[in-house]
Amino acid sequence: MQIRNKETWLLIIIFLALFMSVFAGSDAWAKKKVVCEYCGEGINGQYVLIDGHYFHPVHFKCSNCGTPIGHTTYHKKDGKYFCEKCFDKLFARRCTFCGGVIDQGGIIVGGFNYHEKCYNENIAKRCAVCGEIIFDDFYLDYWGNAYHKKHLDSLHQCRYCGRLISDKTTNGGLVYDDGRYVCNLCRRQAVNDPSTALILLDTALIFLKAEGIDIRAENINFHLVNRDDLINISGQDIEMQEGYTICDETSIGSDIVERRIDIYILGGKPREHFIGDVAHELMHCWLCSNAPKNIASALAEGSCNYASFLALKHLSEPYAGYIISNLNINNDPDYGEGFRRVRKLVENNGVEYWLYHLKQNKDFPSGY
């Protein structure tokens, strides 16, 4: 049969085109049929497409707990997927102070993460004087108080505890007539009367005797003085001078027939400082009675500071520890380095050897 009508031919062509498109669409759908990445079976219904991979919703699981995460919020790390709860538990930044998750922001200090509020209210170093957070360099005293460095220029340090004198740190303070700045914490226990001073003198004698340093007190005259008196007596205007000892001897030939020792101690200092200074001067008395004349200054002052150290060890108050720490860091060649040399000598050989050496020699033994 021949088809001669052009319209008929056109209809046939359109029909064939529609037929082929339906067939091609069926074939394309067959090719688009997806397979679950987890179970390997075809997915006929809903699926989850993750990074080019298909999953049944129940087979897209948290790598940590195995819970299906389907269409819920998830997180990816190192090629693995995690539910929000597990990701927060395993990887989220947490505040070192409260343990909570830091969703955004936060600060890192010393390698630790903090919520800004947690850090500012609980961790941040605050100035002991003004209470503001310290963001830059600061000064830290022995007692753990931190200060903005600017306060070092406007406030005075207490002569006896090293704190900056302020209402917040020391409940204030004052300056003595001799120029010493003393905080009210130290003034509460300041030694100003002779009777208390004599009691502390006896205390220092007992402490030293317990350490093997026996000092006879009957020839010692004790004086509690102010700074002007100390300057006049010593002939020295040394700002940090706290005491002075004078040893006068009367001789007939080579024999000493009379010895008078006077100890002068500056008043107005806390009792721990007082005991330490008295022990120092008492060791000068021992040297006057037992050691050769004109021994090396480093050996003499180092030994006297070591006696102070021995007495202070008997006190449990924090002030004693503070004074000892200053002895250890003192950079003076006699009072600081001399003390450390004597301490090494005693630690290696004992107190008896040290005292015996002082009786026989004017300087340190070799190696010290």
How does this model look, in words?
- There is one protein chain.
- The chain is of the alpha+beta class and 368 residues long.
- It is built from 13 helices and 17 strands.
- The strands form eight sheets. A three-stranded mixed sheet has the order 14-16-15. Strands 1-2 form a two-stranded antiparallel sheet. A two-stranded antiparallel sheet has the order 3-4.
- It is elongated and about 160 Å long.
Q: Give the overall shape.
A: elongated
Instruction: Give the % helix.
Output: 40-55%
In total, how many beta strands?
A: 17
The main β sheet shows up as:
3 strands, mixed
Give the topology string: H per helix, E per strand: HEEEEEEHEEHEEHHEEHEHEHEEEHHHHH
Q: Which regions have little confidence, pLDDT < 50, spanning 5+ residues?
A: 21-30
Percent strand? 15-25%
In short:
Helix content is 41%, strand content 18%.
Layout of helices and strands:
Layout: H1 6-32, E1 34-35, E2 42-43, E3 48-50, E4 53-55, E5 74-77, E6 80-83, H2 84-90, E7 107-109, E8 112-114, H3 116-123, E9 138-140, E10 146-148, H4 150-154, H5 167-170, E11 173-175, E12 181-183, H6 184-187, E13 190-191, H7 194-210, E14 220-225, H8 227-234, E15 243-252, E16 255-266, E17 269-270, H9 271-290, H10 297-312, H11 318-329, H12 337-349, H13 351-360
Parallel strand pairs: 14-16
Antiparallel strand pairs: 1-2, 3-4, 5-6, 7-8, 9-10, 11-12, 13-17, 15-16
Helix pairs in contact: 7-9, 9-10, 10-12, 12-13
